[in-house]
Amino acid sequence: MTVSQRAGDLLTLLRSRRSVRALQERPVPEALLEQILEAARWAPSPHGRQPWRFVVFSGRERKERLIERMSAAWEAQLRLDQQPEEVIAVRLEKSRQRIRQAPVLILPCLYLEDLDRYPDAERQESERIMAIQSLGAAVQNMLLMAYELGLDTGWMCAPLFCPAVVCEALDLDRRLQPQALITLGYAAADPKRRPRLPLETLVIRLDSQSDGEQPGQ
């Protein structure tokens, strides 16, 4: 049974979760990693198909192979964006260090093989989008559970921009579509928190209870 270590209630947990870039070398206990992955398993998904798979690794050899292949792909993209050489060098090195320092890496992949099939492209695309949305929910479950257990995470989007490169580097089934890379471990330093937009900016109210019948009428 999971015992809360940081949050006294759900809202505190949601507000406290943060993105951490610098992690300690301290290993993550297998029991905690299993609880984090179990949390992902219970995310909502289209038709209950659970269209996600998670590749979990921590070995140096796999890390270095992934770093080498993704760095080459990202460097080419940065040059395409006409970024200055010094900026490219700094950004690449920061990204490499985040991956190297993480005790555990989790690669969430989209898996579409079990989804419903439709004769028209429009509905099939909607089905794919639903799968992507549900993968995001599964990742959020992992991030929250990790924080609850005293760990921290970082959500890196790099694999989304070079999925074939990631599959080749890790020798993965090509039916898996890498979507992100989650770094997992114990925080080496507290990150700066980015402010959240106020609710009045985020919520578009089209009506309210006062505009129509009151509850119970």
Automatic annotation (TrEMBL):
Q: Which Pfam families match?
A: Nitroreductase (PF00881)
The secretion signal range is none
Which ranges form a coiled coil?
Answer: none
**What InterPro entries does the record point to?**
Nitroreductase, Nitroreductase-like, Nitroreductase/BluB
- Ranges for the Nitroreductase domain? 14-186
GO terms for MF: oxidoreductase activity
UniProt protein name: Nitroreductase
Organism, as annotated: Thermogemmatispora aurantia
